[in-house]
Every structure is written in structure tokens, then in C-alpha cells.
């Protein structure tokens, strides 16, 4: 009976370790996804800012030429 309890205890500990590893991996994947999304969003914003700047400069060039 004692061996069964020890085996059960070891199984429980292994399951706890496995679950904590799964949680840590999930959290790391979430952080990585959030970082990728942030970089993509910043890239899109930067692209829009450059487009606006190009338009403003083109408008200024037109005013200077006339």
C-alpha cells in the first residue's frame, strides 16, 4: 500500500511540473505574439507617418514652384 501512495505522489508531482511547464510555455508564446503585434503596429504607424510626410513635402514643393 505504501508503494501505491508513493507512486501516486510521484505521479502528482510530475503532473504539477508538466502543467507548470505548459503554463510557462503558453505565457512565453503570448509574450512573443504580443511583441510581434506591437512591432507590426509600429511598422504600420511608421509607414503611415512617412506617407503623410511625403504628401506634406509634395504640397510644399508645389507651393514653392508656383
**Are there runs of 5+ residues with pLDDT below 50, and where?**
none
Main sheet properties: none
**Shape descriptor:** rod-shaped
**Structural class by helix and strand composition:** mainly alpha
Strand content: under 5%
Straight-line distance between termini = 98 Å
Gyration radius (Cα, Å) is 29 Å
Instruction: Return the string of H and E elements.
Output: H
Number of helix segments? Answer: 1
Helix content: over 70%
DSSP strand count: 0
Task: Quote the average pLDDT.
Answer: 90
Label this structure with key terms.
66 residues
What does this structure look like?
It is a single chain. The chain is mostly helical and 66 residues long. It has 1 helix and no strands. The protein has one helix spanning 2-65.
Amino acid at each position: 500500500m505504501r508503494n501505491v501512495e508513493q507512486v501516486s505522489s510521484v505521479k502528482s508531482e510530475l503532473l504539477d511540473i508538466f502543467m507548470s511547464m505548459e503554463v510557462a510555455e503558453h505565457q512565453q508564446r503570448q509574450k512573443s505574439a504580443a511583441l510581434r503585434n506591437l512591432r507590426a503596429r509600429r511598422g504600420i504607424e511608421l509607414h503611415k507617418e512617412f506617407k503623410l510626410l511625403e504628401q506634406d513635402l509634395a504640397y510644399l514643393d508645389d507651393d514653392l514652384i508656383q
